[in-house]
Amino acid sequence: MAKPRVRGRFCHKCGRRRPNEAFSGTGHARCICRECERREKKGRKERAAAQAAGEGLRLFEAEAAYGQSVFRQAIGDVAGSIDAAERCLEALPTYAPGLLTMGSIEYQRERRDLGRAHFERLLELPPSTEDLAEILDEAGEFLIDRKEYADGLALYRCAAGKFPEVAALWSGLSCCAGHLRRFEEAIEASRKAVNLAPGNARCLNDLGWSLLEAGDLGEAREVLRRAVEMAPEDGLARGNLALVEERLARVARAREAIRRGRGVRLEDVRD
To which H or E segment does residue 9 belong? Predict the structure, then answer.
């Protein structure tokens, strides 16, 4: 005897047998009825809303603690400023200004490993993080000011890779590489900065200085002349150009002495 045909199918969520019309197209594939699908969708929305509310509260707490840290620093309360900065990261460990602050504090405490770890966490944040490129550049400039050139170079390499369109990061990379006598890398980074910001006299000056350090006096003079023409008030560019001109003059005097068959003293060509 043939088995009686049963209409509809079971819903794997609620365990009820429901008619075929109670299932949507995707519901048929998943064996979940429309009613359970609606409840599932509503639950996802409620969980997302709760998560967003929690993140918003943590962000508010982090921003409040960071503001307190800045205020305490301004009035000379160093201990209070550090305590507030620590509370900032307790509230939201991925808050970029807080990571910058605590990283700087740890370097100043001579705890380089901890400071480096905070800056590395900055590099792990998504590129969409607000003001992240500027914050990374601030971290790099802090390291340059402290003459932590190796750490600065590592940071700028990663930061420039993350934001290759930001000229300031390539300039910072060039500065660190130059101090470590990695002249080829410094020149390459400076050229990238100039290409990104051709109207920026500081980028031109950085390239000129990198070329000067590498011994390419001819191109250094050409680049620095452009920098001075672009920003005549820039004393640093004028000083670098004067230094190039002085070195070129020494080279010319040495060549003339050689041409005339006279000996050349070392002090005539060196700084």
Answer: strand 9-10
Number of domains in the chain: 2
Is the per-residue pLDDT at 23 higher than 50? yes
- 110-119, 189-198, 243-252, range with the lowest pLDDT: 243-252
Residue that is last in its domain, among 162, 195, 228: 195
How many Å apart are CA 174 and CA 162, to the nearest integer?
Answer: 16
Closest CA to 93 of 53, 61, 50, 52: 61
pLDDT at 79 over 70: yes
- Residue carrying structure tokens 């209409």: 7
Backbone angles phi, psi at 225, to 5 degrees: -65, -40
Residue 114 reports pLDDT greater than 80: yes
Q: Residue 269: its pLDDT value, please?
A: 47
| Statement: the pTM of the whole predicted model exceeds 0.70 | yes
- Which residues 6+ apart lie within 8 Å of 19 measured at CB? 7, 8
Query: Of 145, 180, 195, which residue constitutes the final position of a domain?
Result: 195
150 shares a domain with 202:
no
Q: How many residues does the chain have?
A: 271
